[in-house]
Design goal:
The chain has 108 residues and is of the alpha+beta class. Helices cover 40% and strands 15% of the residues. It has a single domain, classed as Aspartate Aminotransferase, domain 1 (Alpha-Beta Complex).
């Protein structure tokens, strides 16, 4: 929920979902650009859904959900594991607004 206050960010999926996964789409952004910016900040994330991670094409799962190609191209997934800490979550929330803004410039 902390990622959504940035304009154009939507959580993908139902309200009742695993608390360890967060799949979002960012309007006007190529997820690959955002992935690189977050990686430079030391944050791990993945593009698309688990079954298309590492594939450089719009997520077929997001397309099948009827969210459109822009949403499929701009989707990013965060996963928490047993080694994740509140510091990790805080780092994502701190880096998120600037990373989205820079990715929008790169995607323009």
């Amino acid at each position: 929920a902390g990622l959504v206050p940035v304009e154009g960010v939507r959580v993908i999926g139902p309200a009742e979902r695993s608390p360890a996964l967060c799949h979002v789409t960012v309007d006007g952004v190529r997820a690959d650009d955002l992935l690189l910016l977050l990686d430079a900040a030391g944050i791990d994330s993945s593009t698309g859904s688990a079954c298309t991670a590492g594939v450089h094409q719009p997520s077929e799962v997001v397309l099948a959900m009827g969210l459109g190609e822009d949403a499929a191209t701009g989707s990013l997934r965060f996963s928490l594991g047993w080694t994740s800490t509140m510091g990790d979550v805080t780092a994502v929330l701190d880096a998120w607004p600037a990373a989205v803004a820079r990715a929008r410039l790169a995607s323009a």
